[in-house]
Every structure is written in structure tokens, then in C-alpha cells.
Amino acid sequence: MTASVEPVQGVLTGQNSLHPHLYLGTSGWSYADWQGAFYPAKMPANQRLGFYAEQYRSVEINSTFYGMPSLKTVQSWRTQSPEGFVFAAKFPRVITHQARLVNCGGLATTFIETMQELGDRLGPLLLQLPPSMSADSLDDLGRFLEGLPDGLVYAVEVRHRSWLTEEFADLLKRWQVSMVLTCGEHMGRFWRATSRVAYIRWLGVHDAFENYASPKIERDEEIAWWSARMAHFLDRGGTIFGYANNNYEGFSPRTVRRVESELARQLGSAPQ
């Protein structure tokens, strides 16, 4: 990857009722608990993505973390989604957690080429590092980023606080890679932009709730904190991808709507 690469233009265009450079959604879409709460009660599982894509502008794919998707699967995601819809996807754990970014360039290339079957629906590719991986691996990360192909949007999520240094930020800035901004158990919440694309994950605490059929808590103060910074970033010409996890409030579709509502207030516009 060459320095100062610009993200794929298809990701940064299109219209949104709130802001053209805002892509909000949930972490995953295939949850049985959502049946009757978000999806129609009798909707077949193979129709969920199409329904979801009518409600939101983007989704974060979690299944790619657990295994390399097939070309057929990725092609079906594209077929089921409308023009303008964008997928974010995690790199497989065999790359991040097993190989720990070392000697896995071939696997990374295979994953990226497979995800490119999404065409203009391909958004950021998320490199989620394990909690045990500290900033001692900075050089490994640098070599991995250098080997990535140009023309795509990449984001790195760290889960060890040793990474929160200027050296790490400078590395991401060099390659125009987003530092993933999280609100969860590992890193708390923080804001640091390292590219013109911000990638936000509202995570909460893993397995915090017994089911995900309805909201369990409301994080008003946190959502207001994030929304103020998001509005400022958008006003300055940035692009935001933001994804809510079920563990954040108990029902991520509701969380997304709450973020939209507060962000609309911060931007001084009415949600549509």
C-alpha cells in the first residue's frame, strides 16, 4: 500500500436523509431475538438482509472474523442489498489472532479479493487486534499495512491501551488508515482521527444481556458525547461509519435510531 491513499470513491458518495457522508448500522443482522422486534415475526432468515438494507445504510459483517467467506456468499450479499448500501467487514481471526499479522500476506490478499466481489458496496475492512496484542507489535502492524492493496478503506481496532500513543497514530496517518473509536470494556471511549474516515463501534460489555429483543439501558450521556464529535467531524468534511452492538443498550436497531436522533439535533437538522 502506498502512503496517502484515497478511499474508494463509491463509498463516499450517495445520499442520506441526515448527511451524505454518514453510514450507520448494526454489528451483524442475523439475530433470532430480532424476530418480531425488528424483523416481521414470520420472516424467513434468508430475507433478513434485504429487509435490513431498507432500514439502514450500512452493516458490519462479523461472520468474516470466524472464517473466510466464499465467493458465492459475498456475491449473495451484494445481490440482496440495494445500490448505495455499504458493508464493513472484519478480517478473519486466522490473520489477526492466530498469525498475529505475521507471514499472512497471502491470506489477507485472498480475503480482500473475495470481499471485492461486493464491488461498490464494499466499505471499510476492519483489522481487530486481540486484547493480548500490545504496542510491542507496532512493527508487525506497520509491515502488514504496507503490504495491503491500494484503493480500499482500512480501519484498525486495538484493545490494549499501550497502543494509545503518538507513534501508533502517526503510523495510521502515514497509511491513511482509521483508528477505530470504541465505547466498550477494553478501551473505554476516546476520539482520535487519523484519516478523513472515522470508524466508530458502540460495544458495551460482552454478553451483558440475556437476550437482544428490546432495549435494556439507555446511554444518553454517551450518545450525546459521541454525537457532538461526529457532527464536528462531518462539518469538517469527514466520513463516518458507525456500528452499534447489541451489548451496548440491549437492542442495537434502537441504538442506531437514538444516535441518528441526537446527531440530527447536533447538526441542527430534523431526521427524515
TrEMBL record:
Its transmembrane ranges are: none
Q: Which domain of life is it from?
A: Bacteria
Please name the Pfam families in this protein's record: DUF72 (PF01904)
Q: Which SUPFAM superfamilies match?
A: TM1631-like (SSF117396)
Identify the Gene3D superfamilies for this entry: Protein of unknown function UPF0759
Q: What is this protein called?
A: DUF72 domain-containing protein
